[in-house]
Design brief:
The protein is built from 13 helices and twelve strands. With about 350 residues, the chain is an alpha/beta fold.
Length: about 350
């Protein structure tokens, strides 16, 4: 149980994982938690290494204290002090800007602990700073990224990645696999489930009847068989028809090049992309600094920054915290609203 009943505080507790200790995670956390608007929407609880956060605070220069904690019950959630569940994995002088197995191990352990906290009811949502897939693999954890790792830790057989940027939301049918493998994997059942997961997320966030546009696979969505080998007819149209039969507002398959423009204009609340780059490219053009990654289908709420570890600038104190702040905002909005003493 969270501390709500004791404190009367309605703000959700968001567990923020530190990500790769050699990347920009520590510094963007220290920057974000200096902001009053963050504490207005949530109770932030970092899961990471207190000493690394103090080091990052030194070159960020915002004067925050870091409290090393064992349990969330010890946290005070007051601006000026960063509450950190301290795993104590990163030694002094650990390099920034390099792919290192210890950093990968830390990234794994932080997300593992955060997941345990949410499952135990000691936190309400997870917000992840970036990890390095190469470092994660070097540590022996063979997952393509956070999405698949969280699915494993929660025993969830299938999840989807949703990216949110200003004026655009995109959910992916496939993500971290090669293009040829993605096309082979796409089938009507999978497309229908992804549409359903995306729609349910938007309904939960307050959009009562979302308008959903579904991308084709081929240029011009196949142009009625002119391009491709009938992938749209075989893999996408049956799913769209089944969704429409439920009364949902689903259109497609549509040409991706115009669909993203129409969605950004306001014609659609959600775009369903068939593969990684089809969805990621437009979102990052629309707002890399303000983009947020949401894992849809987990039994826990998880949001993330929509950028990487930025090893080239890590340790310099110049990384922008905007995406992390927006991810915290999304996590706070999506967190389960329990019956709280403040209500």
């Amino acid at each position: 149980m969270t501390q709500d009943s004791m404190t009367g505080d309605a703000r959700p507790i968001v567990a923020i994982t530190m990500g790769d200790a050699s990347g920009i995670g520590p510094e963007i956390i220290m920057k974000a938690l200096a902001r009053e608007d963050v504490y207005a929407i949530c109770r932030p609880l970092v899961v990471g290494d207190a000493a690394r956060l103090r080091e990052a605070g030194g070159f960020v220069g915002n004067g925050l204290e870091v409290a090393a904690l064992r349990t969330p019950a010890e946290a005070h959630f007051e601006r000026g002090t960063v509450d950190c569940i301290d795993l104590g994995l990163i030694p002094p002088g650990h390099p920034f800007g390099k792919v290192l197995p210890l950093s990968g191990e830390g990234a794994y352990r932080y997300i593992e602990r955060a997941t345990q906290l949410v499952q135990a009811g000691e936190a309400d949502a997870i917000c992840t700073a970036p990890l390095s897939k190469e470092a994660l693999h070097a540590a022996g954890h063979k997952y393509p990224g956070h999405t698949e790792l969280l699915a494993h830790l929660t025993g969830t057989p299938e999840v989807s990645m949703m990216l949110v940027a200003p004026k655009l939301r995109v959910i992916h049918v496939t993500t971290h696999i090669g293009l040829m493998d993605a096309i082979r994997r796409i089938e009507p059942g999978l497309v229908e489930r992804v549409i359903a997961r995306g729609r349910a997320t938007l309904v939960k966030s307050g959009i009562a009847d979302p308008r959903i546009g579904v991308c084709g696979i081929n240029p011009h969505a196949g142009e009625n068989g002119l391009f491709g080998q009938g992938e749209e007819e075989e893999k996408i149209i049956p799913a769209v028809e089944r969704c429409r039969a439920k009364g949902w507002k689903v259109d497609g398959p549509l040409p991706a090049d115009t669909l993203f423009f129409r969605a950004a204009r306001g014609d659609f609340d959600l775009v369903v992309a068939m593969y990684h780059d089809q969805g990621h490219g437009p979102v990052k053009v629309m707002g890399l600094e303000a983009g947020v990654n949401i894992t849809v289908g987990l039994p826990v709420i998880r949001t993330s920054v929509d950028h990487g570890t930025a090893f080239d600038i890590a340790g310099k104190g110049i990384a922008d915290e905007g995406s992390l702040v927006e991810a915290l905002r999304q996590a706070s909005d999506l967190a389960p609203r329990r019956e709280r003493a403040a209500a």
